[in-house]
Design brief:
single chain, 251 residues, alpha/beta, 2 domains, two-stranded parallel sheet, 18% strand, globular
Length: 251
């Protein structure tokens, strides 16, 4: 909705807290998800509202239960992203949203969005594979080089890069994987890069890089850990800054 300039369309009543990086753009209500699901705010939604939510068994169960026990009824729409690369996800999302947006969007809006996505895919396909193993972590690496608990596996951008043989990274089929000291030491000797990813709340569309040493970095970017177009933007940005990282041009 942000990319289509429809974030503050009157039909958009509330957004889940996961997308808080949009806080300066969206003027409506924010709803906490999971165990913090706000019953009060949900109760304020209009009868027959469409509630879109990321693929989650717990959240789906909670919403379905609340939908059955509440006097109002809503249309629950689960957006499935697991196992899909960002381009597959965006195409499925456009097809899913099209019936809901047909009143507020003209055909050229979606065609323009599809064109932007296809251009990004062509750009990333044309790039050479990364020169050494890269491991992205869910969260920030500390200055003392303490790594977050989980490595990003087959999720988000990695689904695309693994499938297209652009990256050497962890081969597990799981989305997020715990790591061991022996694994880390082995990959460090091979010259691997270890990168902590942080969702940046400032919508700059520019990666903020924190270099800890020649193999350890933190990168902040808005929406980098959420499926969708922001991940595609981040992939393009990372490909551009990667040469500076390996040639030690980032201070």
């Amino acid at each position: 909705m942000f990319e289509l300039n429809k974030l503050n369309d009157p039909s958009v009543q509330a957004i889940f807290q996961n997308y808080k990086f949009l806080n300066q753009q969206f003027k409506g209500d924010w709803i906490s998800g999971g165990i913090y699901l706000s019953k009060k705010l949900l109760g304020n939604l209009r009868e027959g509202s469409d509630i879109f939510f990321d693929e989650s068994k717990d959240l789906r169960t909670e919403l379905e239960f609340y939908n059955k026990t509440n006097t109002k009824r809503w249309n629950l729409v689960e957006i499935k992203s697991k196992g899909r690369d960002p381009f597959e996800f965006m195409e499925s999302l456009i097809l899913l949203l099209q019936p809901f947006l047909e009143k507020s969007l003209c055909k050229s809006d979606l065609e323009s969005l599809r064109s932007e996505i296809n251009q990004a895919r062509s750009f990333l396909m044309s790039e050479k594979p990364f020169k050494q193993p890269i491991y992205f972590f869910l969260g920030k690496i500390t200055n003392q080089i303490k790594l977050p608990d989980l490595i990003i596996g087959r999720d988000l951008f990695n689904v695309f890069w693994i499938k297209e043989k652009k990256i050497e990274t962890i081969t597990s089929q799981f989305s997020y994987i715990p790591w061991s000291a022996s694994f880390y030491n082995q990959e460090k000797k091979k010259g691997a890069l270890f990168i902590g990813l942080v969702d940046n709340l400032e919508l700059t569309n520019k990666a903020i890089i924190d270099k800890l040493d020649n193999q350890h970095f933190n990168i902040s970017y808005p929406g980098v850990l959420l499926p969708g177009l922001t991940v595609i933007h981040w992939m393009k940005e990372f490909v551009k800054i990667y040469p500076q990282m390996i040639f030690k041009k980032i201070n």
